[in-house]
Amino acid sequence: MTPLSGYLLVSALLFCIGLAGALTRRNAIMVLIGIELMLNAANLNFIAFWRFSEHPETQTGLMFALFSIAIAAAEAAVGLALIITIYRHFRTANVDKVEAMKG
Amino acid sequence: MTLSFAILAGLTVGSAVAAMSLRNLVHCALGLVLTFAGLAGLYLQLNAEFVGFTQILVYVGAVAILIVFAILLTRGTEPANEPAAVSPWAGLPVAVLAFLAMAAAVLASPVDKRLAAPVPEVSVKTLGQKLMTDYVLPLEVLALLLTAAMLGAVIIAMKDKEDLQ
Amino acid sequence: MAEVFQAIDQFPVTLKTWLLGHAAGVMPEWALPLLSAALSITPILAVFPLLFALTTVIERKGLGRIQNRRGPNRVGIPLTNIRLAGFGQFIADGIKSLTKEDIVPRSADKVVHFLAPIALLIPVLLTYSVLPFGRNMVPLDLPQTGLLFFFALGASTELSVFMAGWSSRNKYSLLGAMRAIAQMVSYEIPLILSALTVVMIAGTLSLSGIVESQAEVRFGFLHSWHLFTPWGLVGFFLFLTAAAAEANRTPFDLPEAESEIIAGYFTEYSGFKFAIFFLAEYLGLFAMCGLGITLFLGGWLPPFKFLGFIPSWCWFLGKLVALILLFIWLRGTLPRLRTDQLMGFAWKFLLPMTLINLFVAGLWHLSVTSVPMTVRWIGGFALLAIPYWLLGRGFEAKVGKREYRFAN
Question: Which residue from A95, B144, C38, C165 could staple onto C173, CB 3.0 to 4.6 Å apart?
Answer without folding.
Answer: C165
